[in-house]
Specification:
Double Stranded RNA Binding Domain; 41% helix; two-stranded antiparallel ribbon; 200 residues; 4 helices; alpha/beta; 7-stranded mixed sheet
Length: 200
């Protein structure tokens, strides 16, 4: 039996988990074809019910991390907590809109007069880590509700996103916000492609 080169085995060890934990996109209800002809899509973001890592409630995660950082250095935890929440409007949402615009053929962002609004409801965040010698990618779960802007009770479609991966190729994603930002980018890209396919 021919021996498999050691380098190929090592490569397979890294590549295999990528397929096992691949991102999944599923239309839960509705008809995406109703978006055909849409050029602008208003976007909103909902963080009402978010789990983080092993914490079912994001607030518990923030409280625990803040306390730990403040014990090491007074004030450090408070700064971290502020940065965690500030990353939403400064990093995650602009990146989501950027990638959605690039791959959907629509312009996504703050367009309150647009006919439709996409509300992205984050449900779970795995922040991951990168300490050089070892790492764990960030991961994101959520749902996108596409509704009529004038009446959010009129739902056009719901899309579920599981395991949107967050990492920077090359490994220079030591900052948690950068990894999570890339997870939002991955989610936006996957949804945009699915919507574009249904609205051709």
């Amino acid at each position: 039996m021919k021996r498999i080169p050691k380098l190929l085995l090592v490569a397979a060890m890294f590549v295999a988990p990528m397929f096992v934990n691949a991102q999944k996109i599923k239309v839960l209800e509705g008809d995406l074809s109703q978006l055909k002809g849409t050029t602008k899509l208003n976007t909103e973001f909902d963080y009402e019910h978010v789990g983080v890592g092993s914490y079912a409630d994001e607030n518990d995660y923030i409280a625990k991390k803040s306390e730990a950082y403040n014990k090491k250095e007074p004030g450090r935890g408070d700064k971290w907590a502020k940065a965690w929440r500030d990353d939403r409007p400064k990093r995650f949402e602009p990146k989501f809109n950027e990638l959605f615009t690039e791959y959907s053929g629509m312009s996504a962002g703050k367009y309150p007069k647009a006919k439709y609004t996409l509300i992205f409801k984050t449900t779970f965040i795995e922040p991951g880590y990168n300490v050089g010698v070892t790492r764990k990618n960030a991961r994101l779960n959520g749902e996108a509700w596409i509704v009529e802007t004038g009446d959010h009770s009129k739902v056009i479609a719901k899309i579920k996103v599981d395991k949107a991966p967050g990492r920077v190729y090359g490994g220079f994603d030591f900052d948690t916000g950068v990894r999570i930002q890339e997870a939002y980018a991955a989610a936006a890209k996957a949804m945009a492609k699915k919507i574009k396919k249904k609205t051709k």
